[in-house]
Amino acid sequence: MCLAIPAEIILIDGDEAVVSLDGVRKKISLALVDDVAVGDFVLIHVGYALNKIDADEAAKTLQLFAEAGMLGGER
Amino acid sequence: MKYVEEFRDQHHVCAIAAAIAREADVSRRYRLMEFCGGHTHAIFRYGLQQLLPNNVEFVHGPGCPVCVLPMARIDQAIRLAQQPDLVLCSYGDMLRVPAGKGRSLLQAKAAGADVRMVYSTQDALQIAREQPQRQVVFFAIGFETTTPPTAVAILQAQREGLTNFSVFCNHVLTPAALGAILDTDTPLAIDGFLGPSHVSTIIGSRPYEVFAERYQRPIVIAGFEPVDVMQSALMAIRRINQGQAIVDNEYTRAVTRDGNAKAQALMAEVFTLRSEFEWRGLGLIANSALKIADAYAAFDAEQRFDVPLRALTEIKGCECPAVLRGQKTPLDCKLFGAPCTPENPLGACMVSSEGACAAYWRYGRVQEAG
Ligand code: SF4
User: Fold this and answer.
1) pLDDT band per the 50, 70, 90 thresholds, residue A74
2) Tens of pLDDT along A12-61?
3) Would you give the DSSP letter of residue B132?
4) From the centroid of its chain, how far is CA B303?
């Protein structure tokens, strides 16, 4: 029920946007978010963007995983 | 898909599993409650429990809004749908949920009621625009993820002067449910929590801080992908080892401490607290749900239509209250499997695929036995 999916914004028209969800285009509402631009990734839930995905934070989290992997390799 | 595949990477999952095996103290148990049905789903789908040492255990929480909605509320929605000239719109998950004696919205639809599945509140508004001679009611359910979209729809209906649109509001609050689980008379059977992901994109991680402090349990806001769940478990284990009961955030790519201020403001504008609300499996919880604020009473279906709530008794023998609190597993319930199955759900935890009993039924039995 609470699953939201990351999608890239392709086009913005006022409070509405078109996103690409795995290649499929979909119209969504931007009524809940500020400061989003074409090319940003947002989390989509029931037709609304809930929040922008922070690319830097995503990279940092992946880095953490990679570090766990390196430590694992020492065993 | 970007931001999905990387977080399902099997190598990462295995590496973190190895780290957990190294860091989990063999002399103690770690019982981690994942709050959300989304986490439960990931744990079963990717077999994450099997990657953990025996003393680290996932306990399935109440975070499935479909499961925790009482039958009496679904019964009310069914009777609303049966009003003349009324279109009842709802998210797909709600249609199959039984309200006792096999009654459901789907069955009401088959019997002639105009029940429509919508993907978004925008679809419900569109039906109201296209059919001005009919009343359109949106059956609103869900935690803080689905609440802001309902607020947007009500504000839009007001702006457009849509007099045939209203909302049957059943939105509930996540922190209240967490409080209800923590606040038990019996000793708490949980050592740490994996906190909501998408709810937290809206409310932020700050609302959990009082619970971590008051009940001395670490809480890690956790993403829904398998690597997120594993990493969050590792973070919780580290806090437990250090004896630190604080809130950590693994899901930093989408959750901040303060959350989405715009969405919060919309919710605060349109809704106010109910003094209490019944949760299926958890009972009455004070200040745990929202109703439509007086300024928007014109859009409140509970006020517009005379369809009062009727008391319905839940099934005897259902162990959901204990399952939802992590005190029992679905296998402890005598009704599990016969007669309670996903096709014939008797209790909250079997109702949607995200519920603990349904997850056990679909994935768990084999794994538990093996
Ligand atoms: S198996 Fe069914 S009756 Fe038993 S606890 Fe789960 S939902 Fe309730």
Assistant:
1) very low
2) 999 999 998 878 899 999 999 998 999 999 999 999 999 999 999 999 99
3) T
4) 26
Residue B81, pLDDT score: 97
Burial class (CB within 10 angstroms; exposed 0-12, middle 13-18, buried 19+) of B366: exposed
The beta-carbon contacts of A60-63 under 8 Å, at least 24 apart in sequence, are: A60/B252, A61/B228, A61/B231, A61/B250, A61/B252, A61/B253, A62/B6, A62/B7
CB contact under 8 A, B146 and A62: no
Ranges of residues in chain B with a pLDDT under 50 are 366, 368-370
Contacts of B7 (CB under 8 A, 6+ apart): A62, B223, B225, B226, B227, B228
For chain B, list the domains and their CATH numbers.
5-59+176-241 (3.40.50.11750), 70-171+260-304 (3.40.50.11740), 320-364 (no CATH)
pLDDT for B295 equals 97
pLDDT of residue B123: 96
Strand order in the sheet with B135-142: B114-118, B86-91, B135-142, B165-171
Q: Which two tokens stand for residue B311?
A: 């008391």
Distance between B319 CA and the closest CA of chain A, angstroms: 23
Q: Which ligand 1 atom is nearest residue B337's CA?
A: 1
Contact B357, B330 (CB under 8 A): yes
Cα(B97) to centroid(ligand 1), Å: 14
- The residues, any chain, with a CB within 8 Å of residue B84's CB and separated by 6 or more, are none
Nearest-angstrom CA–CA distance, B272 and B287: 10
Whether residue A36 lies within 8 A of chain B, CB to CB, comes out as no
Q: Chain B contact for A13, CB < 8 A?
A: no
Note the pLDDT tens digit of each residue in B229-257.
Answer: 999 999 999 999 999 999 999 999 999 99
